[in-house]
Write a structure and sequence with these properties.
The structure holds two protein chains of two kinds. By secondary structure, chain A is mainly beta. Chain A contains no helices and eleven strands. The termini of chain B are far apart. Chain B is 0% helix and 57% strand. Chain B has no helices and twelve strands. Chain B is globular, with a radius of gyration of 14 Å. Classes of the chains: A mainly beta, B mainly beta.
Chain lengths: 113, 119
């Protein structure tokens, strides 16, 4: 299995809602990433988990809360988002030490009303 | 800090022609890695090719090759015999040497080039 899966594919939420994005990989990768991508822009790194520990937080607002329950799963909990948070959210994983390329999931297109 | 520059916002190419997508980079670190990703309109980022700074030969993967000119700090992607399915956004990226934690690494992306293949 050489893919990263993300659910849901599309999400529409109000500013008072709480929702979660889910990412899963079964490649045995030990590093997992969340990116945010606005239209016509490159992905922007949000969080990195390495061996199930948060290793990088790119000063992301607290309304985004990541969670890594185990080495295969990565969640992004959303609460009290703003319309400007509407974007494509991409999850990626990499092998960790010795492996360099990141494998991306198909993304979740989030719309905040 | 590392920086990636892609100077072509958009390119239009006839089907079956070869195409070169430009990428220049800036880093003071002697050890670095360069990546190319393809992003179709569906959104998924697809890894295409990787070049390490110490690799002696240019990387190749099927129809993709990387024209690595270290002295000029350029890592252009060459797609041979282009196909309609090659129409997508292409990103050049570099591994950020200052941000590596237990194997996890931060990528620095260029602004991307939108490639359109015409029939």
């Amino acid at each position: 299995d050489t893919e990263v899966t993300q659910t849901p594919k599309h999400l529409v939420m109000g500013m008072t809602n709480k929702k979660s994005l889910k990412c899963e990989q079964h490649m045995g990768h030990r590093a997992m990433y969340w990116y945010k991508q606005k239209a016509k822009k490159p992905p922007e790194l949000m969080f990195v988990y390495s061996y199930e520990k948060l290793s990088i937080n790119e000063s992301v607002p607290s309304r985004f809360s990541p969670e890594c329950p185990n080495s295969s799963l990565l969640n992004l909990h959303l609460h009290a988002l703003q319309p400007e948070d509407s974007a494509l959210y991409l999850c990626a994983s990499s092998q960790g030490t010795g492996g360099y390329e990141q494998f991306f999931g198909p993304g979740t297109r989030l719309t905040v009303l | 800090a590392q920086k990636i520059t892609q100077t072509q916002p958009g390119m239009f190419v006839q089907e079956k022609e070869a195409v070169t997508l430009d990428c220049t980079y800036d880093t003071s670190d002697p050890s670095y890695g360069l990546f190319w990703y393809k992003q179709p309109s569906s959104g998924e980022m697809i890894f295409l090719i990787y070049q390490g700074s110490y690799d002696q030969q240019n990387a190749t993967e099927g129809r993709y090759s990387l024209n690595f000119q270290k002295a000029r700090k350029s890592a252009n992607l060459v797609i041979s015999a282009s196909q309609l399915g090659d129409s997508a956004m292409y990103f050049c990226a570099m591994r950020d040497q200052g941000e590596e934690t237990e194997g996890a690494q931060k990528l620095v992306f260029g602004q991307g080039t939108r490639l359109t293949i015409n029939p």
